[in-house]
Amino acid sequence: MLVSILFGLFTLLLFYAAYFLWSGKATVFITESQSEKARFAQNFFSFIGSLLAINGFATAILVFYRPLWLAFSVLGVISFCMLIFIFGLNRLMP
Prior knowledge:
The chain is 81% helix and 0% strand. By secondary structure, the protein is an all-alpha fold. Helix 1 packs antiparallel against helix 2 (35-64) and helix 2 runs antiparallel to helix 3 (68-92).
């Protein structure tokens, strides 16, 4: 029961992060207003937002059906997406 609640909270966090990236509010991370970099950043943030939304649906499935291999696979994919996001942010920073 506790694992279901934790996966449910994690699902909500992933959906909120996906909304934050999709809505364009994540451009506050970009300090320079170069048009080329801003366009790339918006495409990058929407790509990461869609990955997080897909992973949010996967963790929503884990609330009800959670074999161990699937739980660790989803968490590994989410960790990889977060690494891509961090490296992308590092590339976008001046």
